[in-house]
């Protein structure tokens, strides 16, 4: 139990690294939470500081999910401290636990008063390792939606929904035998709902028609 707890804590701490806050302070001498939407995420960095710094923040946040799943999870050895009733092997289950811990750390970071980003990029880094095909579809959905609508928040929400939906389609329509489908599906639904929850204010602005649009040609949002 001690080892799994250590993995959870380390993954949370890695996820808590506030890349957007660090970048904004180092580059511009500002706190990104006091500008734009007030969110400490890569999208707000893009909004305030331009797409280049936004992309850097997003990639660094995604890397946190990769670190948790690929590296920190490997600290585990031996059996689980509880009965593993999932269809996954112990290591894959530990990867899922580590990944979720990193996403939670990003959203509620201990290094910035438990006020972090929305978890999209870190969840992307985690899931691209666990459900690669479904995440590639989600990334494509995100890219298409953002290019057409210019709403990053809408692309993020629909991309999050696309992950479990793609899993369902692959398993039930294309009859792909996905290992651990019965466990993966509720897990992915949980992650998607968490992402949608963190975008709840964006949903309100989208409904009201006053959500910011990204303008890539001018490196700022309109």
Mean pLDDT: 91
Strand segment tally: 2
Strand content: under 5%
Give the proportion of residues in helices: 55-70%
Q: How many angstroms separate the termini? A: 50 Å
- Biggest sheet strand order reads 1-2
Output the helix-strand order: HHHHHHHHHHEE
Descriptive report:
- The chain is globular.
- Strand 1 and strand 2 (220-221) form a beta hairpin.
- The chain has one domain (2-221).
- Helix 1 runs parallel beside helix 5 and helix 7 runs antiparallel to helix 8 (152-172).
- By secondary structure, the chain is mainly α.
- A two-stranded antiparallel sheet has the order 1-2.
- The mean pLDDT is 91.
- It has ten helices and two strands; from the N terminus they run ααααααααααββ.
- Helices cover 67% and strands 2% of the residues.
Task: Summarize the model shown.
This protein is mainly α and 222 residues long.
List keywords for this structure.
two-stranded antiparallel sheet; 2% strand; single chain; mainly alpha; 222 residues; 10 helices; 2 strands
């Amino acid at each position: 139990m001690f080892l799994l707890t250590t993995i959870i804590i380390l993954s949370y701490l890695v996820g808590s690294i506030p890349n957007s806050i660090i970048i904004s302070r180092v580059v511009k001498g500002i706190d990104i939470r006091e500008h734009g939407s007030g969110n400490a995420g890569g999208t707000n960095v893009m909004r305030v500081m331009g797409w280049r710094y936004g992309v850097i923040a997003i990639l660094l946040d995604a890397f946190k999910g990769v670190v948790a799943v690929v590296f920190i999870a490997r600290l585990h050895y031996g059996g689980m401290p509880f009965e593993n009733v999932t269809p996954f092997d112990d290591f894959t289950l530990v990867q899922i636990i580590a990944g979720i811990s990193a996403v939670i750390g990003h959203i509620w970071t201990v290094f910035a008063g438990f006020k972090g980003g929305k978890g999209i990029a870190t969840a992307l880094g985690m899931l691209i390792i666990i459900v690669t095909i479904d995440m590639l579809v989600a990334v494509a959905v995100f890219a298409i939606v953002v290019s057409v609508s210019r709403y990053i928040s809408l692309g993020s929400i629909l991309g999050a929904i696309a992950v479990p939906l793609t899993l369902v389609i692959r398993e039930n329509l294309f009859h792909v035998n996905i290992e651990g489908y019965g466990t993966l599906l509720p897990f992915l639904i949980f992650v998607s709902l968490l992402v949608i929850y963190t975008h709840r204010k964006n949903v309100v602005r989208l409904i009201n028609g006053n959500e910011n649009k990204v303008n890539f040609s001018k490196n700022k949002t309109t």
